[in-house]
Write a structure and sequence with these properties.
Structural class: alpha+beta
Largest sheet: 6 strands, mixed
Number of domains: 2
CATH class of the largest domain: Alpha Beta
CATH superfamily of the largest domain: von Willebrand factor, type A domain
Strand order of the largest sheet: 10-9-6-11-12-15
Strand content: 25-35%
Radius of gyration: 50 Å
Number of helices: 9
Length: 487
């Protein structure tokens, strides 16, 4: 009996001690470094506002920058801008054109049953009409040369060998009327230098005006300024005319059109070289004007009359009205997003590009890139694109307190009139995500002073409690045994 009682008591003590110890034990949770925290328990801040800028061959400029930051929404806006900084070509500048037309006696002759002057008037009229249609601000003047009817000492070989038939005018009707009547008066001499000199002195002094001279003649000059040597095709007249062309080419664009190419191999009876051989008209033309590939000044055309229209209304017109294409073309901008941004931010298209197209999402197969393609960006134009990076609902703990670039790099491929080129930059705004430790609620402090010492809890309390219990059990058991023996 006693043995059973003692075994019972031992078992009771062990169970009680185990339960008592369990009631006061504290279990500490382990922390998972790869877990995430809620975004609303974090703070997003911009720690670096660096602006990515790149030059595009002195014709354009790229800029990427942080343009908006919302700390409460935990989002930021990135804006990409491309400017074509090339100057707009001078098509809108004022234009002045002088038509310097040959009205010597030889122009009254015919070619293929048509008067030479009629070839000129037809083509000059259509040329002037096209110029007035193309330019907003243009004036055209007309000079005729070889208007002296006969040799006059002191006059022949001077500016009197040419005349201003129409000063610079913005009236299409006045120009047309003058062209149609320009051959009414003509003379025996071909003084090209006089015609060129009069044109020069009648241009305006406006330095911002583009100025052109279009010279039309059916032959080489046989007279020049400050000389009375008429019908001397080579020598002094050729030298004076060539010098004038070179002089004017420093200020004006000159187009010299010499008609009568079919006679280029015909010898000129009034032009001799030193050994007495007559020079051909082609040789005389080259002596003054050079060749079409290597002209003396500006551009030189040696043609036949049937080619006059194409030369004036296509070649020369297109050259005068030509506007250099300063567009930036085939611009491809690749913006690469870091993986840490991809893992913790949502990419949102906030503003579509005003020029070109952009991929609708980040291409993870191409190093997390977005691609903005601009086929053509004309001079003076600006293209923009914006997107947002918004913190996701849950953020990786591994990036907390780390400074993170918003992009890895930007690559740009583009074309200018001079060819293809590319540029790159890794400059980027940077952000940091910090975790805000939740604050524990404050418990009011109890300053009450007890009248008697408050029993202390802990390991001693447990021991006393167990011993007291054992004592009670032993006492009760002893009493039960004594009662049984009395019976």
């Amino acid at each position: 009996m006693k043995t059973k009682l003692i075994s019972f008591l031992a078992l009771f003590i062990v169970l009680f001690t185990t339960l008592g110890s369990s009631a006061f034990a504290v279990t500490m949770p382990t922390e998972d470094n790869n877990s995430k925290v809620e975004a609303n328990k974090t703070t997003l801040e911009v720690v670096d506002k660096s602006i990515c800028e790149m030059d595009l061959d002195n014709m354009g400029h790229f800029r990427k920058e942080l343009t908006h930051f919302d700390v409460e929404k935990r989002e930021l806006t990135i804006t990409l801008t491309v400017n074509n900084t090339a100057n707009v070509e001078e098509a809108e500048k004022p234009v002045e054109v002088f038509l310097v037309l040959d009205n010597s006696n030889s122009m009254t002759k015919t070619y293929n049953n048509k008067n030479k002057i009629d070839y000129v008037t037809d083509v000059a009229n259509s040329f002037a009409t096209s110029l007035f249609s193309h330019f907003k601000d243009i004036k055209i003047g007309i000079v005729g040369f070889s208007s002296t009817k006969e040799f006059v000492k002191g006059t022949t070989g001077s500016l009197a060998d040419a005349s201003v038939l129409l000063p610079l005018s913005n009236s299409a009707e006045a120009v047309k009327s003058t062209i149609n009547s320009y051959g009414a008066e003509h003379g025996p001499w071909t003084n090209i230098e006089a015609g060129l000199s009069l044109a020069k002195s009648n241009f305006s002094s406006n330095a911002d005006t583009k100025k052109y001279i279009v010279l039309l003649s059916d032959g080489v000059p046989n007279l020049s300024l400050d000389t009375e040597h008429t019908l001397t095709y080579s020598g002094i007249n050729a030298a004076n005319t060539k010098k004038k062309l070179q002089e004017l080419s420093q200020e004006y664009m000159i187009y010299s059109v010499l008609m009568g190419y079919y006679e280029k191999d015909v010898q000129c009876p009034k032009a001799f070289i030193e050994n007495g051989k007559e020079m051909t008209y082609g040789e005389l033309a080259e002596e003054i004007f050079g060749t079409q590939t290597t002209p003396t000044a500006g551009k030189f055309y040696y043609i036949n009359y049937e080619n006059l229209n194409d030369t004036i209304n296509k070649d020369i017109f297109n050259d005068i009205t030509y506007k250099k294409d300063n567009s930036l073309k085939n611009i491809v901008i690749k913006d690469y997003i870091p993986q840490k941004i991809m893992n913790n931010f949502d990419f949102i298209h906030s503003i579509a590009p005003n020029i070109g197209t952009v991929t609708d999402k980040v291409d993870t197969s191409d190093n997390n890139s977005i691609t903005w393609t601009i086929p053509v960006l004309e001079e003076g134009k600006t293209a923009t694109l914006s997107y947002k990076l918004k913190l996701k609902d849950h953020v990786e703990k591994s990036v907390l307190n780390e400074i993170i670039p918003t992009n890895t790099k930007v690559d740009i491929d583009f074309e200018t009139p001079d060819g293809k080129d590319k540029t790159t930059s890794d400059v980027s705004p940077k952000v940091k995500i910090t975790y805000e430790e939740p604050k524990k609620p404050e418990v009011p402090k109890d300053n009450t002073v007890a009248e008697k010492p408050i029993p202390q809890t802990g390991n001693y309390t447990n021991i006393f409690f167990v011993l007291a219990t054992i004592g009670i059990v032993v006492f009760a058991t002893t009493r039960m045994i004594k009662l049984k023996n009395l019976r």
